């Protein structure tokens, strides 16, 4: 039997050999930095964490049979979050009143336990909210205030959604502008980005608001890590840090190819990506976005520390590629899903015409692996998956979870009678490891929304009409 020292040497040799032969699997990747001001459990933000890695530490439903139940909320629900207590909180936009509605959901059934209507805001208002370390929803509503909303038990044993903190932003955010992104930093300040390019920090204890104007439009959220806050405008990627008084200051700016126009299946002219912090060592040494180059866009990876180019590589379909989704980042791997041609029912005001005006939704999912020394990258695999949701990687089971949309007569030709399937995709190979039918028709349209995992391998996915709860049978 080998001695303990010999065993140690054997393990070290095996680890070194694995490093030479290939990339470590997703489960071995460095976890995103744990933000102390975000709810625990890996589902406190739309993209899972403040790094916007689109990973979860929890296992998903897996590759066996699943049961799916749709809760009709008469709302489109792009954000389903959950904190340490396991109760999902859905932030939705009402179909009829176009106002934000917050729902607390039963973790066992998906039924709405209570609802709170907020003041109406812009198209993206309220979507990029998060749960703080006390499981309270942090959201900006149409009144111009930053809210913290707790879910609490009532005297009768039911539930109530209650605004427990309100910080006015009206003195900082101009009339006609709206908050499109929120994320806490490591000191507990709330960073925000507005559609018109205002970046700010809020100290909700002192009510101090500090801002900087980037002078460029922002259509996606911002991400935070110990290195700072990252935001992508319609022209460039920025890394910012707060000064001594909390005022955002630009550390570096990286311009990208924004292309000649908005593409079909995108909501703005420029990148469709919220920046993704990731990396194999600290979980945030790299930043990734996609550009809007035509006809084929690029994945761009830069070093967070100094804006050094690590990787710039064409991804997705050579004949027309684009995405409205944030890349998935884990370890040395990045996953990019195509939304080119996805039939959004509406686009924000000022988005401009798409060129071409429309296109088939052919889909596509690409994995790119970075060289271990950070000197370049290469495509690991391409899969023809028509992802209709933001894919999310479970580092616990090595699966990418998403929803696929398939046309009735032609898979790429979309319509109101399309089929929607929940997929588990092997992150190592790109092979579909499991497919489960969710439903048919527009009621199940997941509209490129992000899902989140909760205990018990339960998956929560927003749709244009409510929320679907997916769990192993």
What's a concise summary of this model?
The chain is mainly beta and 473 residues long. The protein contains 1 helix and 35 strands. The strands form 9 sheets. A 5-stranded mixed β-sheet has the order 1-28-29-30-31, with no helix packed on it.
What does this structure look like?
This protein has 473 residues and is mainly beta. The protein has a single domain, classed as Methanol Dehydrogenase, Chain A, CATH 2.140.10. The chain has 1 helix and 35 strands. The strands form 9 sheets. It has a 5-stranded mixed β-sheet with strand order 1-28-29-30-31, with no helix packed on it. The protein is globular, with a radius of gyration of 21 Å. The model is unreliable at 1-27 (pLDDT under 50).
Topology:
Elements: H1 4-21, E1 55-56, E2 66-72, E3 75-82, E4 88-94, E5 100-105, E6 112-117, E7 130-131, E8 137-140, E9 145-153, E10 159-168, E11 179-184, E12 190-194, E13 198-203, E14 208-213, E15 222-225, E16 228-232, E17 236-242, E18 248-255, E19 276-278, E20 286-290, E21 298-303, E22 309-314, E23 328-330, E24 333-337, E25 365-370, E26 377-383, E27 389-390, E28 392-394, E29 399-406, E30 419-426, E31 432-440, E32 449-450, E33 452-454, E34 458-462, E35 466-472
Parallel strand pairs: 1-28, 27-32
Antiparallel strand pairs: 2-35, 3-4, 4-5, 5-6, 7-8, 8-9, 9-10, 11-12, 12-13, 13-14, 15-16, 16-17, 17-18, 19-20, 20-21, 21-22, 23-24, 24-25, 25-26, 28-29, 29-30, 30-31, 33-34, 34-35
Q: Trace the largest sheet across and list its strands.
A: 1-28-29-30-31
Indicate the structural class: mainly beta
Main β sheet profile:
5 strands, mixed
CATH superfamily: Quinoprotein alcohol dehydrogenase-like superfamily
- Please tell me how large the radius of gyration is: 21 Å
Beta-strand percentage range: 35-45%
Quaternary = single chain
Helix share bin? under 10%
The coarse overall form would be: globular
Q: Counting H and I runs of at least 4 residues, what is the number of helices?
A: 1
Distance between the termini: 44 Å
Overall mean pLDDT stands at 92
Residue windows where pLDDT falls under 50 for at least 5 positions: 1-27
CATH topology: Methanol Dehydrogenase, Chain A
Q: Work out the number of β strands.
A: 35
CATH class: Mainly Beta
Which architecture per CATH? Answer: 8 Propeller
Number of domains: 1
